[in-house]
Amino acid sequence: MDSLLIKGGVPLHGEVLISGAKNAVLPIMAATLLTAGKCVIRRVPQLSDVHFMAKILASLGARVTIESDTVTVRAAKLKPVGNYDLIRKMRGSICILGPLLGRQRYAKVSLPGGCVIGPRPIDLHLKGMRQLGAELTIEGGYVKAEAARLIGAEIFLGGRAGPTVLGTANVMMAAVLAEGVTTVESAACEPEVVDLAHFLNQMGARIVGAGSPTITINGVKELHGAEHEVIPDRIETATFAIAAAATNGEVTIKGARPDHLHAVLDKLREAGVEVHRQGLTMTVRRGGRLKPVDVTTLPYSGFPTDAQAQMMVLMALTPGLSIITERIFESRFMHVSELARLGADISIEGPNAIVKGGKGLSGAPVMASDLRASAALVIAGLAAQGTTQVNRIYHLDRGYEKIDAKLRRLGARVKRVEGS
Ligand code: EPU
Question: Nearest C-alpha to atom 17 of ligand 1 is from which residue?
Fold first, then answer.
């Protein structure tokens, strides 16, 4: 398994170009199953999750090509069943449920289990499908959905931790080909949901309200092919912004959507980081002394759970006490014990991480446990004195396009070590 060797203590300087958003492209790729027409998706990041989704679509009978940052899919005919082993391995593959049910009134997808960041239930996805008229059975680890007809309904998708992002995407994708009007209440407002709605509308769907808690979908008989450019990855943007501040550098982030990051930028500014926005570009640098801030993760437009681990590193470097509260996933603090190896003083009490910052970090071998924890460990390694080896970086390759190359261009001393 590959690892990253980071010689820390070098401030990041220069420009970085943001890639397309992983969490937008996966449901958009799944949505191509809704039509026999040709779909062209641009600004697709080269990520292992994207290649995985391409394989899943191909196993369902679609013709998929990936050329540089463009994915072309033509799902002229679908096979009733795909390669379950593939589907089982990727949590994000749950978003093929809605499109398969919508187009062929039948879907069989493996149930995602829990993972290191906490349980990953899909009860809200299933509730939405049921309310559209699908019959669902759970058997041998799979969910089977069948419907003679899908009929528009009023669906409330609020859960224990608020709305569900992929649940909203799934219900939207099933409802576009349902008869009549579907209203999704307590819908997720994330920009990735809005991007999916744009793509679906380009395919001929009639969706209004995406980005607000109420989405209305007027069902249509069929969809056609479309072209789409994926939105920039707001979590990659946040990661580079935090890395610039953590290393006391100055980074100009290009091709981003700072308007998708109000909560993160607000917290960075509160912490004393200077952020200058100009259109799709922003420059981030540590102004003077950093100040501790409290952070609570929330559904959009609150502080994203996917940037919590990275922000915790910045607070570990900041003299004083800060409390980071995780409200979306139950156990998304796997990075805490690894950060302790670098000298961070963080204790966990329920959903709160209490960070006593400013003690200085020093390099050590650490183990990445999930995607965002890995990003946090990389930032910590960049800011630490000495050498940090981040093991199991396949997690990073799932969600950050060429992160090591991008960091090297900013002056970081980062080396990928193969097979260690
Ligand atoms: N939930 C339910 N029932 C459901 C679905 C979700 O109770 O049927 C709960 C979850 O347990 C969690 C909360 O609702 O407490 C939010 O989960 P959500 O469904 O919104 O998460 P998701 O759609 O499965 C996506 C991203 C995650 C990101 C979350 C939250 C993709 C592929 N994944 O997951 O991204 O953390 O939304 O913003 O889009 C990542 O990129 O590192 C990542 C984990």
Answer: 164
Catalytic machinery residues: 115
Look up residue 151 and give its DSSP letter.
B
The Å distance, Cα 265 to ligand 1 centre, comes to 22
Q: pTM (2 decimals)?
A: 0.98
Nearest atom in ligand 1 to 235's CA = 41
- What's the number of CA atoms in the CB half-sphere (13 Å) around residue 65? 7
Ligand 1 atom nearest to 190, measured from its CA: 38
Rounded Cα–Cα distance for residues 272 and 249 (Å)? 14
**What's the Cα-to-Cα distance from 258 to each of 227, 241, 283, rounded to whole Å?**
24, 11, 11
pLDDT tens track, the chain, 420 positions:
899 999 999 999 999 999 999 999 999 999 999 999 999 999 999 999 999 999 999 999 999 999 999 999 999 999 877 777 788 778 788 999 999 999 999 998 888 765 677 778 899 999 999 999 999 999 888 899 999 999 999 999 999 989 999 999 999 999 999 999 999 999 999 999 999 999 999 999 999 999 999 999 999 999 999 999 999 999 999 999 999 999 999 999 999 999 999 999 999 999 999 999 999 999 999 988 999 999 999 999 999 999 999 999 999 999 999 999 999 998 899 999 999 999 999 999 999 999 999 989 999 999 988 999 999 999 999 999 999 999 999 999 999 999 999 999 999 999 999 985
Distance, CA 299 to ligand 1 centroid (Å)? 10
What is the residue type of 261?
L
Nearest CA to ligand 1 atom 31: 23
Q: Tell whether the torsion through CA atoms of 259, 369, 396 and 22 is positive or negative.
A: negative
Q: Whose CA is nearest to atom 5 of ligand 1?
A: 122
Query: Which residues line ligand 1 at a C-beta cut-off of 6 Å?
Result: 23, 26, 92, 119-125, 159-161, 164-167, 188, 305-306, 328-329, 371-372, 399
Task: Please name the residue that has the structure tokens 């959507």.
Answer: 257
